[in-house]
Amino acid sequence: MVLRYSKLFTVTGAITLEPVTIRVECIKAEGFLGVSIESLEGEYSSPDDFDKASGIGEDKIHNFLPMKLPDARMLVDALNEALEASEETSEKEAA
Predict the structure, then answer these.
(1) What are phi and psi of 30, to 5 degrees?
(2) Phi and psi at residue 73, to the nearest 5°
(3) Is residue 84 part of a domain?
(4) N or C of the chain: less Cβ packing under 10 Å?
(5) How far is 42 from 40, CA to CA, in rounded Å?
(6) What is the pTM of this model?
(7) Is the pLDDT of residue 56 over 70?
(8) Is there a domain that residue 88 lies in?
């Protein structure tokens, strides 16, 4: 497996208002080139910390979503459409 890209960032969970760390990676392996999105409750400043915490059997929500490039593009399109819809709704409510 070859890691071609990796980014780690922390957001505030929309429901819990607690920190959630998200890792986005581009991975190339035999027969697979795609994107992986992982999220884990908590704030982690390094990939090593994230990996250690995701392996612990604590009661944390850990999501892992690997997908091939065409599927990742569909996800990006859907996210952009959802953002546009939310911006339009916000503008209408502000008027």
Answers:
(1) -60, 115
(2) -65, -40
(3) no
(4) C
(5) 6
(6) 0.79
(7) no
(8) no
